[in-house]
Write a structure and sequence with these properties.
By secondary structure, the protein is an alpha+beta fold. It has four domains: about 110 residues, no CATH class; about 100 residues, Beta-Lactamase (2-Layer Sandwich); about 80 residues; about 130 residues, Heat Shock Protein 90, CATH 3.30.565.10. It is about 60% helix and about 15% strand. The chain has 13 helices and nine strands. The strands form two sheets. It has a five-stranded mixed β-sheet with strand order 5-6-7-9-8, covered by helices on one side. Strands 2-1-4-3 form a four-stranded antiparallel β-sheet. Strand 1 and strand 2 form a beta hairpin. Helix 3 packs antiparallel against helix 4. It comes from Phytohabitans flavus. This is histidine kinase. Its EC number is 2.7.13.3.
Length: about 450
């Protein structure tokens, strides 16, 4: 049951003191010459202790003071009678006792509240420390979700839960305390869980009593740790997937190179070797007689050399190494079946890895424009800005490109992110596609290795 306002309690304590004086005075007058003084004193002491136990010092102090006054005036000789002087003394004693009791009560209340707050703060810090330890250890988000029990116990709540928002608008309880408890999402103290700027879910705590000071801050701190755990898990998953894609891409490139060499140049060189061997075995034949065979060998070697150059250009374009990103991109634009508006503003050559990443982005995007966009024009802009290479490829095609689909786009994104850059694809249906890539001029890899 809630206590009345403090000023009301002070007024009630004053009334209790006045009533106690009247009752004790009547009792002492009746018990005089009949009951020993020690017995009366002990009875009064028990009454004051009972009042202190059940009502508090605010009531016990004025009751005790006026009881002693009544015992002195109406039980112990010489007896007193009420007069203006005695009434003034009584009122003075009563007022002082009430004031002292009020200050004492308020001080005790503050001390109790401070101790409770310290205990709650210590519990909050311990709970958050345990949750933070789980996050630092990189445990699965499910284990961090289960730590919602820590929050429920610290706040002495009826129930607590972590709720995840689903893409279809539904909500899923991923952790609850006590286990299996039903926690309404739209009630109680709550704090949103935001991951990478997007709403992920909410933490809900149903308190047993009224509002608990600092409850919302505690829940907010917990949700911050949960968001960190989810973000870390997503980054680890993306990193693992990216590494797997890089390994797969490297394996596929090696197999493709092996196949090209085996099916093309290797077969040609074997045939040429056999021709040379046959000419060697015909040692007595005049050179003029084998002139045709020698011509065949020379032509074959030239063709093999041309094939090697083609393969080498596929691995790393020669024009990119020799002339830089600007001329290499201009060559791509000239070969594009879709007209390309080109704007390249490079005062200096970026790092080789940055040039290669930018080149392959332009190459892949222009290929996609030609194959899928149904565009009439495309535009490529490259510039150095604030220590970054800014690259933008856009078209006026049908749009609807999904950067998460297709090995080409995914591979480019992995390459860009590996260099500390970022690739953003905006492709609304019917409004064309815009690809923006931002790469540091000195990549993190170059800084570490340089």
């Amino acid at each position: 049951m809630s206590r009345p306002p403090f000023w009301v309690e002070v007024l009630l304590a004053t009334v209790a003191g006045a009533v106690a004086f009247v009752l004790v005075a009547l009792g002492c007058a009746a018990a005089r010459d009949r009951v020993p003084g020690v017995v009366v004193g002990l009875l009064l002491l028990l009454v004051v202790l009972a009042v202190a136990r059940f009502a508090g010092i605010l009531y016990a102090l004025p009751v005790g003071v006026v009881s002693v006054q009544a015992f002195d005036w109406y039980f112990l000789p010489p007896l007193r009678i009420l007069s203006a002087a005695t009434v003034f003394v009584l009122v003075l004693f009563l007022a002082v006792s009430v004031i002292v009791g009020a200050f004492t009560t308020r001080a005790v209340q503050r001390a109790v509240a401070a101790e409770k707050a310290r205990g709650l703060l210590a519990g909050e810090q311990a709970a958050l420390r345990r949750v933070a330890t789980l996050v630092a250890r990189g445990v699965a988000p499910a284990e961090v979700f289960a730590a919602v029990a820590e929050i429920g116990q610290v706040l002495h709540a009826r129930a607590a839960a972590v709720v995840r928002y689903e893409p279809d608008g539904a909500s899923t309880v991923v952790a609850a305390w006590p286990a299996g408890a039903t926690v309404p999402v739209d009630g109680g103290a709550r704090a949103p869980i935001t991951v990478d700027g997007r709403p992920w879910g909410v933490a809900v705590v149903h308190l047993a009593g009224g509002p608990v000071p600092g409850a919302r801050d505690l829940i907010a701190n917990f949700t911050d740790l949960v968001a960190t755990a989810i973000s870390n898990a997503q980054v680890r998953a993306e990193l693992t997937a990216s590494r797997a894609r890089i390994v797969t891409s490297a394996d596929e490139a090696r197999r493709r190179l092996e196949r090209d060499l085996h099916d093309g140049i290797q077969q040609r060189l074997v045939a040429l070797a056999l021709s040379v061997r046959a000419a060697q075995l015909d040692g007595d034949v005049p050179v003029r007689a084998i002139q045709g065979d020698l011509t065949y060998v020379v032509d074959g070697l030239n063709e093999a050399l041309d094939e090697l150059r083609v393969i080498a250009r596929g691995l790393h374009p020669a024009i990119l190494s020799e002339a830089g990103l600007g001329p290499a991109v201009r060559a791509l634009a000239r070969r594009s079946p879709v007209p390309v508006a080109l704007d390249v503003d490079l005062a200096e050559r970026p790092d080789e890895a940055i040039e290669a990443a930018a080149y392959y982005v332009v190459s892949e995007m222009l290929a996609n424009v030609a194959k899928h966009a149904q565009a009439s024009t495309a535009a490529v802009r490259i510039e150095l800005l604030d220590g970054h290479l800014e690259l933008r490829v856009s078209d006026d095609g049908v749009g609807g490109a999904d950067p998460g689909r297709g090995s080409g786009m995914v591979g480019l994104n992995d390459r860009v992110e590996a260099l500390g850059g970022r690739m953003v694809v905006v492709s609304p249906v019917g409004c064309g596609t815009d690809v923006h890539v931002r790469l540091p001029v000195l990549s993190p890899v170059a800084v570490r290795t340089g």
